Amino acid sequence: MSLIVQKYGGTSVGNAERIRRVAERLIATKKAGHDVVAVISAMAGVTDGLIKLAREMSAQPSEREMDVLLATGEQSASALTAMAVNALGGKAISLTGAAAGIVTDGVHTKAKIAHISPRQINELLAEDYIVIVAGFQGQSPQGAITTLGRGGSDLTAIALAAALKADDCQIFTDVDGVHTCDPRVVPDASKIDEIAYDELLEMAGAGSKVMQSRAVEFAKKFGVGFEVRSSQKDVPGTKAREVTPNMEDVVVRGVSLERNQAKITICGVPDRPGSAGAIFAAIAAANLSVDMIVQNASGTGTADLSFTLQKDDLVPAEIMLTRLVPKLGAAAMTATTGVAKLSVVGIGMRSHAGVASRLFECLGAAGVNIQLISTSEIKIAVVIDETELDRAAQATHAAFGLAQPRPPSNTAPT
Ligand code: ADP
Ligand code: ASP
Ligand code: MG
Known about the structure:
Blueprint: E1 3-8, H1 16-31, E2 35-40, H2 46-57, H3 63-87, E3 92-95, E4 102-104, E5 113-116, H4 119-126, E6 130-134, E7 137-139, E8 145-147, H5 153-163, E9 168-173, E10 194-196, H6 197-205, H7 213-222, E11 226-230, E12 238-241, E13 254-270, H8 275-285, E14 290-297, E15 302-310, H9 314-328, E16 332-345, H10 355-365, E17 372-376, E18 379-385, H11 389-399
Helix pairs in contact: 1-3, 2-3, 5-7, 6-7, 8-9, 10-11
């Protein structure tokens, strides 16, 4: 008998009717002769709603209490799913992350999984239960509830598939699979049949939130193959796996978009060893993460340094740097919001030239100004004005020929 882990995201369990549909699918999978472990997310909007409520209680709620609060979203959705399965004549039981044996470190709101002891899951599977696990959460060695970062139910599913040595791991969501761009922005984006872990990792890290990047990282590290597929339609999705030789034939696999970015530029930084170190050590000490970093040295013994960060981190970064900039002997600092990041990703870039020029020419032709550029072996990213992001995405997607093949026309050619 094979074991399948299925994860259902927030929209897929977004109301009673959808939960019933998930329950039917779980029962059908069980009836087809598989052992089934389901990982359930909070119902759509619940996590955001709880965060909003928490902020109404306190400007800075403690991270420990945030975890206790947010974990309830997944717990209610998994209990409701178990009830739906049982009402339809199946046999299901729900478990919190802790009861499922998921042990994490003690870093609240972004805990890392330390290990999983799936003893109870295995016992319940042996008793023929469909085991339903609340996603996104675990327990620290001290017994505190922890959560795994936004989108963390993906990580629960991948980590359980690894720990249980599952034969298959299916991530059910509200799109048919990973697309060449977010289909909400580029309607003719096409579904990707097969994607390398490295590509999905870069895409997730660059804003394609269809999979949590930490989950993809975990899958790559432990070789967990998985499929991202639709919970609404029974069609094949996207299979993520280690790179295969023919994957390099495709130069650009997808275009990723990230909104809510901010940019800081420090001008006239003395061009001497230690300047950048001092700036980024202070940023790291304030627990802020920066993304793109670009420095250009002028001929006059100074350099201009720009970097991006999440918009929410801008105010604390500005407060901290306003103090540091004069001490460093730098001339000035500017901070900008309203910027976004667009990235093209593909492992084919390792062996094909000309991707950067094609991207820059396409953005130039669309009248989109590029503010910052950064590259990795398989990604080129640019920072642009956020108001131009959708238009830039559509132009880039077209320039790299990523659109769906048109359905055959019914009209015979004349
Ligand atoms: P879930 O609740 O199932 O975890 P998410 O909302 O986290 O689902 O992820 C699915 C969403 O990701 C889609 O609705 C889509 O808008 C967005 N998305 C962004 N980039 C992509 C992409 N390249 N391919 C598919 N979906 C994408
Ligand atoms: N409910 C959590 C979130 O909204 C985790 C998840 O859905 O994967 O981020
Ligand atoms: Mg998600």
